[in-house]
Amino acid sequence: MRLAVGIDFGGTAVKLGVVDERGRVRAEASFETASSHGIEGWLAAVAEALRAMKLDLRHLGRELAGIGVGVPGFVDFERGFIHNLTNVPGWTAVPLARLMRRRFGVPTVVDNDCNAMAYGECRFGAGRKFRHAVFLTLGTGVGGGVVLDGRVWRGAHSMAGEIGHIPIDLHGVRTETGRGGLEEYVGNRQIVARARRMLRSRTSILPDLVQGNLRALTPRHLAEAAHRGDALALEVFDYMSDCLATALAGITYLLQPEVFIVGGGVAGAGEVLFGPLRRHLNERLSPFFAERIRVIPADLGNQGGVVGAAALALKG
Amino acid sequence: MRLAVGIDFGGTAVKLGVVDERGRVRAEASFETASSHGIEGWLAAVAEALRAMKLDLRHLGRELAGIGVGVPGFVDFERGFIHNLTNVPGWTAVPLARLMRRRFGVPTVVDNDCNAMAYGECRFGAGRKFRHAVFLTLGTGVGGGVVLDGRVWRGAHSMAGEIGHIPIDLHGVRTETGRGGLEEYVGNRQIVARARRMLRSRTSILPDLVQGNLRALTPRHLAEAAHRGDALALEVFDYMSDCLATALAGITYLLQPEVFIVGGGVAGAGEVLFGPLRRHLNERLSPFFAERIRVIPADLGNQGGVVGAAALALKG
After folding, report:
1. Which of A283, B152, B261, B273 has minimal CB crowding within 10 Å?
2. Measured between alpha carbons, how far is A91 from A89 in angstroms, rounded to an integer?
3. Residues sharing a CB contact under 8 Å with residue A90, sequence separation 6 or more, in sequence order
């Protein structure tokens, strides 16, 4: 059975995994992003992690399809070239695929992390039955990936899928990426800030959940409160899901995918998010479109980045 | 040289043309949509128009690639099946490609009219040099077509490209197609209504252009006034182009096409539209995306529908 190494290069941790062609993770390792210094240090830490997984790349021969790396930033996929990483200093203009091939002697592909996750979900996760899917991951920001005809759509210059910047309000707040972008409404910080504002004049079980320390409030507390029927928390999810639905309606009218696959921390809230999200999306679409679109949770969880990156390498 | 017949099935007129593989229109004919009755009547009128163009389909043999029809509504492209036409009564659930093949004995493709125009512009018009283009046509509504890798992207159920319904304001006006859809801001009626509202408290040369009869005001008058430097008309174009830019920014972040091709009546206004449109789009994108996107006028004008439909038939 063919294998690939998937590397999920995050701002906090770098996760590695050996993934087989059924999407099963056979071995795992990780290191802290901050613990490696510079590109050479990073390559050394990757080599160390491969050894920790008892993975001798040379001995695998034809079994090893290659290495896939998902990185948080802009990548020229064709060349495996990193333009810039958003939250990792020092990674500007790095020909990572070439450096990896030289160091490890195996084929390497490099892609944006959300593209990798989108592909992983379509190949091995929630999107297995679909050919046209749009993937979103909800967190501090909103990442995205577009899969059309079973292939990641990267756009004219490898930058497509930036769903978090899609404007949902032409009069919205100005940022470096435009005005009224989706993630200014549904990012973790924004939904927590909204709950805090509402708490000034409303009762809720939220203060109890954080022992009165509202600074400690996270989306996880909001999810817990919503599941217990807390009206304020349910309203936050209702508003957030309506903002999401606005962007998804636009994507549906433009591309008509078969399915939206939603992952990331907040998606763990489950039905308190997906229920209103589906309802608002229906309200924001004509019946022709509403009847033909699905919204489902991602399936691969924390392993999505590793499995997705490996899936890109397995595709070759 | 290979030829195809293109048919542009509009709500007012049905235009036909014989188009060669360089996109040149060799012969033209047309009839009023209302003059034909039912589907049989329509097929008879098409046969009559073909005769008027002295086109004996049987004698063309291999020279004739086939017939392409662009229709204003939802089509199942694979089957050449019309689900429903928006403004033409009686055209629901019509297997038009099959009926045409039976009647005329040649291969026939049927597509949404904006998809046909999008493809025509990419094959023979303003989009010749590009592989990834998004086409918009500005009129009463806003139609659209998405071309990726040189092919029309039709979506999971042949309904993609409905750019006019992309929401640009989550709090916007509710319609049957959702809330805050683009065409509620930039449709012909909406921009004329906006000008009329502004005229209640502002001076402008617009009343003179319509001899004081503001009911006669059209986007053409707005364009004329704007070209003469009329501040009110320029503001209408500025606002309209900012609304357009909001939708185009979202499309750019999602798909990163190479180019937007803008056609339709209002696009005839030229720089008073395209100047502010490009400026607002730049403001609404991060520099990475802004530097890599173009906005250009369509090239095929009134022949876009006929040439596009024929181009789809030539593609086969």
Report:
1. A283
2. 6
3. A38, A39
pLDDT digits (tens, 9 = 90+) for A237-292: 999 999 999 999 999 999 999 999 999 999 999 999 999 999 999 999 999 999 99
Which of B135, B182, B253 is best to mutate for the A interface (most A CBs within 10 A)?
B253
Q: Domain B129-298 belongs to what architecture?
A: 2-Layer Sandwich (3.30)
- Residue A74: which of B169, B170, B288 has the nearest Cβ? B288
Instruction: Tell me which of B170, B185, B242, B295 to substitute to probe the interface with A (most A C-beta atoms closer than 10 Å).
Output: B170
- B263 near B137, Cβ under 8 Å? yes
**Which residue from B160, B166, B179 is facing A256, i.e. has the nearest CB?**
B160
User: Could you report the per-residue pLDDT of B196-244, keeping only the tens digit for each?
Assistant: 999 999 999 999 999 999 999 999 999 999 999 999 999 999 999 999 9
Which pair of structure tokens corresponds to residue B244?
């357009």
Provide the ipTM. 0.96
d(CA B285, nearest CA chain A) in Å? 5
What's the CATH number for B3-122+303-315? 3.30.420.40
Residue type at A251 in one-letter notation: I
Q: How far apart are alpha carbons A180 and A178 in whole angstroms? A: 7
- Give CATH superfamily name and number for A128-299: ATPase, nucleotide binding domain (3.30.420.40)
Q: The whole model's pTM is what? A: 0.96
**Domain residue spans of chain A:** 3-123, 128-299
Please give the residue of chain B at the shortest CA–CA distance from A74: B288
